[in-house]
């Protein structure tokens, strides 16, 4: 017992007191498009981007496609592209995930009054990996650990869709998982919502247009929240959900 107490004292406080005010060192999160103009005719960044997330004239980066590999920054001869550690990049609109020099800051997640009233004190989520590589799934699992502890906000990951208020979607949605994903959604009671987590879930990521995908589910169900990244940092998820529900830390 005394040894256990000594270990706890040595470890100190592990949980992040206010997830929205954290500053994770070394995290590559938000792309930054600088004011320096690109070299004439240069397309080095688009050539190295593995997910076609960058468009030119003017330079725009789609966070819904960006896998945050960082290859574009060193490839850019004018130094126009870089990344910072701003993890608050979730969005309630798909179009809100576009970053450019004219729009360096993403629009804040809009609080949903209806969702706040319904789920502001208790939100149960069912996670479905629809063909993911397990990276996003690991980060979703981390939401319940001592560092992020989403349970303190009344948010929990549950084992059954019949106990869930929301579906956390990860993966590009393969044909083999399309029916299972729909069955999970159909088994959830109304009202319910979808949270798309990761570039694969949002756009297909590097697998977009692959014949092995069936992304019809997102044509039928529009996500209430988009959480970009490859994989997204748990702080991106936590801050996005708290902002959506209007929950104070």
If you had to describe this structure to a student in words, what would you say it looks like?
There is one protein chain. The protein starts with a helix and ends with a helix. The protein has 249 residues and is α/β, with parallel strands linked by helices. Helix 6 links the parallel strand 8 (166-170) and strand 9. The protein is globular, with a radius of gyration of 19 Å. It has helices spanning 2-11, 44-48, 72-75, 113-119, 135-142, 175-187, 199-203, 216-220, 234-245; strands at 30-33, 54-55, 60-62, 81-84, 98-100, 123-129, 155-157, 166-170, 193-197, 225-227. A 5-stranded parallel sheet has the order 7-6-8-9-10, sandwiched between helices.
Q: What does the secondary structure layout of this molecule look like, with pairings?
A:
Elements: H1 2-11, E1 30-33, H2 44-48, E2 54-55, E3 60-62, H3 72-75, E4 81-84, E5 98-100, H4 113-119, E6 123-129, H5 135-142, E7 155-157, E8 166-170, H6 175-187, E9 193-197, H7 199-203, H8 216-220, E10 225-227, H9 234-245
């Amino acid at each position: 017992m005394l040894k256990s107490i000594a270990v706890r004292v040595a470890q100190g406080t592990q949980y992040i007191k206010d997830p929205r005010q954290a500053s994770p060192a070394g995290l590559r999160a938000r792309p930054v498009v600088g004011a320096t103009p690109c070299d004439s005719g240069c397309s080095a960044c688009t050539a190295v981007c593995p997910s076609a997330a960058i468009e030119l004239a003017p330079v725009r980066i789609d966070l819904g496609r960006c896998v945050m590999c960082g290859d574009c920054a060193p490839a850019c001869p004018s130094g126009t592209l870089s990344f910072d550690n701003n993890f608050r990049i979730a969005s309630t609109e798909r179009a809100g995930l576009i970053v450019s020099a004219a729009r360096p800051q993403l629009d804040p997640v809009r609080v949903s009054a209806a969702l706040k009233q319904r789920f502001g004190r208790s939100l149960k989520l069912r996670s479905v990996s629809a063909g993911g590589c397990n990276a996003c799934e690991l980060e979703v699992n981390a939401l319940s650990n001592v560092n992020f502890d989403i349970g303190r906000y009344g948010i929990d990951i549950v084992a059954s869709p019949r106990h869930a208020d929301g579906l956390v979607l990860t993966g590009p949605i393969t044909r083999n998982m399309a029916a299972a994903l729909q069955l999970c959604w159909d088994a959830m009671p109304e009202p319910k919502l979808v949270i798309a987590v990761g570039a694969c879930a949002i756009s297909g990521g590097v697998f977009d247009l692959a014949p092995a995908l069936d992304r019809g589910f997102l044509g039928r169900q529009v996500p209430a929240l988009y959480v970009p990244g490859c994989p997204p940092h748990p702080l991106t998820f936590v801050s996005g959900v708290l902002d959506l529900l209007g929950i104070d830390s």
